[in-house]
Amino acid sequence: MNKHTHTNMTALAALSLLASVSAGCSSNVGDYSPRVICHNANCVEPADIDEDDTPAALRESLELVDDEDRPLIDGVEIDTFWFGEEERCLFAHDLNNLETASDFDVPVNIITQHLEARALQGKPITRSADRFSVLVELKGHVGTSKSEKHTEEQRLEHVGCAVNIAQRLAASAAVSNYQLEVIFTSFDPALLIDLSEDEGFQILRDGDRITARLGVLAGVPKPLDSQTQPIDAFPEEAGIDFASVHPHWTRHASIRAYESRGWSLGLWMFSIVPETLDAIEVYRPDYVTTSEARALTRWLER
Amino acid sequence: MKKSLALLLLTSLLFLVPATAMGEDPPRPEQPDKSIDASAPEKKGFLEFGLNLRTDLGVHPLRVDVGFRLPKLEVLLIADPMFVFDKQSSTDLIFFFTPKKVHPYAGWRMTTIGLVDGRQFQQNLLMGVGLALPEFLDGRLRGQWGFELAMATVKHGGGLPSETLSFGSARSYLDLVNFAMFARYDFQLGVF
Questions:
Q1: Which of A24, A58, B57, B154 is packed most tightly, with the most Cβ within 10 A?
Q2: Is the pLDDT assigned to residue A257 strictly greater than 90?
């Protein structure tokens, strides 16, 4: 190899490196704008997990608007927890604050009152001026430990509670004439399968009052956490069409596998850090579930 | 008065830190260095500059090292020219303790995130360990592989409320504590 050839190859290698680095960092989000979902009904900064799934945080989150009175969010995620010992359907992330946990009808009333009021005043109900999304998460355990799984009867009770939430939301949307989407999500395949077979869910899904969907959640993998299940644990016949994953903990191949099933993608996060923002740019999910709505929308609109 | 005192302290630090670090030379192989005149005094202080590379998404894949190295201490400033691509930057100040081939380190990273009407700052505590990689060009090109723990301790700025790291629940810190690896190669320029 002569010196001239060597110089050319070095220049070519340098250009290749520069091109690949530039391509890897092309981060202009342009017109891309995912639906911003309020994580655990609590996305007012500063993020405080003690306020997750509480009526006060839900009200404050729904009232987040920009200078033009446009909402900062496109929807909320509310957690439903079936408390096995008392056979109650709670609006709660877990049983750590049982004494203050609300029943499931509390968030439904807050959401419907808020949306009805804005619809009545002719104000936009979402950031994207589109349908409002409610992600109803069904927690996969019934006690303090994540190993306390539902019995078959408890699963059906929990599913019934979740469908009841959607039916009440749908009734409000029909009366006040606003667009609504309800996505039932869970880490637990059994709950999603039971939901898919529930008559109430099927009526909602097949009807035209609202959009009703099923979605898988994935986060910290085994053995660090027991909740996330492999993709093949969710059968095709369940009709799932959405996956919301945590980008730090979900492997690239798994995310591509969800997408290859034709499911739409969501990313969820606890905190906004460079890793989560880069994941949004790489995967361009349809939904982003965040605890920091103002920071996220200001980043998206930069 | 306060300015004079600060200047005095700073000047003292500038002299004390190198003096403390310039204790013993690190052990070196007994092979003679063919490229350097054996009669010339061995350099103990080096300026260094080079590239800092990584594949994780915590910082940009390519940043620039500027620093100085003494026999037992290396101080490195890592700048982020790739901020032009996405309005995000991560600037590190790191202190490596380098008595042998294993280099424990501590430092600070300031990350900035561009928002529509301002900039959020995230302050990260860095801890980790580096391992020496093979040297080239008679030791003038030195490499290091490193393992890093970064903790976003404070978020502030951008017109948003400040937030501090909490270990009260896994949900509070899971996204804010991250591990990563890096590799770097720097040219060394002996100065004294």
A1: A58
A2: yes
**By percentage, how much of chain B surpasses pLDDT 70?**
79
pLDDT recorded at residue B23: 44
DSSP per residue over chain A, as a string?
--HHHHHHHHHHHHHHHHHHHHHHT----TT--PEEEEGGG--PSSP-GGGTT-HHHHHHHHT-B-TTS-BS-SEEEEEEEEETTTTEEEE-SSSTTGGGPEETHHHHHHHHHHHHHHHHTT--SSTTSS-EEEEEEE-S-SSSSTT-PPPHHHHHHHHHHHHHHHHHHHHHHHHHT--EEEEEEES-HHHHHHHHH-HHHHHHHHSSSSEEEEEEEE-SPTTT-S----GGGS-GGG---EEEE-TTTS-HHHHHHHHHTT-EEEEE-SS--HHHHHHHHHH--SEEEES-HHHHHHHHT-
* Integer CA distances (angstroms), A206 to A133, A240, A280, A282, in order: 17, 14, 32, 34
* pLDDT confidence tier of residue A148, bands split at 50, 70 and 90: very high
Residue A208: the pLDDT is 87
Distance CA B10, CA B67 (A): 18
pLDDT at B58: 87
Distance from CA of B155 to the nearest CA of A (A): 9
Of B90, B115, B174, the CB nearest to A302: B115
Q: Which of A109, A31, A111 is nearest to A73 (CA)?
A: A111
Q: Residue B105's closest CA among B91, B89, B94, B120? A: B94
- Whether the predicted pLDDT of A96 surpasses 80: yes
Please list the residues that pair with B66 across neighbouring strands.
B49, B77
* CB contact at 8 A, A126 and A73: yes
Measured CA to CA, the distance from residue B155 to residue A130 in angstroms comes to 32
Cα nearest neighbour of A40 on chain B: B171
Burial of B89 (0-12, 13-18, 19+ CB in 10 A): buried
To test the contact with chain B by mutation, choose from A49, A60, A267, A273 the residue with the greatest count of B C-beta atoms within 10 A, namely A273
What are B100's two structure tokens? 């042998």
Per-residue confidence band for B91, with pLDDT thresholds at 50, 70 and 90: very high
How far apart CA A291 and CA A72 sit, in angstroms, is 12
Rounded average pLDDT over A73-80: 97
Nearest Cβ partner for A27 among B58, B86, B178: B86
